[in-house]
Amino acid sequence: KDIDGTKFNIAKPGEKNLGTTFTDVAEDELRKTYVELCKVYGEDVAFQMVKDSPIALVAKRQNIQAVKDGFSSVHGEEEARAMIARNPGLLFVKPSDAADESNADTTMKMSYMVA
Fold this sequence. Notes:
Radius of gyration: 16 Å
């Protein structure tokens, strides 16, 4: 099980298809997400984010701006942009959680701790 309790599908010898996962996204959807990242962060930053963390392409498109807005309400526009650019995994935070000031200090510190 994953840390959040999600059960892993682990292939057994001879198995080929375990079904779809949240990263099984059509290419046209990935492109649309990339375009949205470019709109919100600019082409250079979006490219670097995807290069550093390709999984950023499966973030919910409708949340990309909302997540940045949420973090911006707590940290300010420039700090939020820099924080998300450093750690594109923050794109998966719920917009309401991004705007939650109770974890602001920890979130900022953790944005520097990316693999």
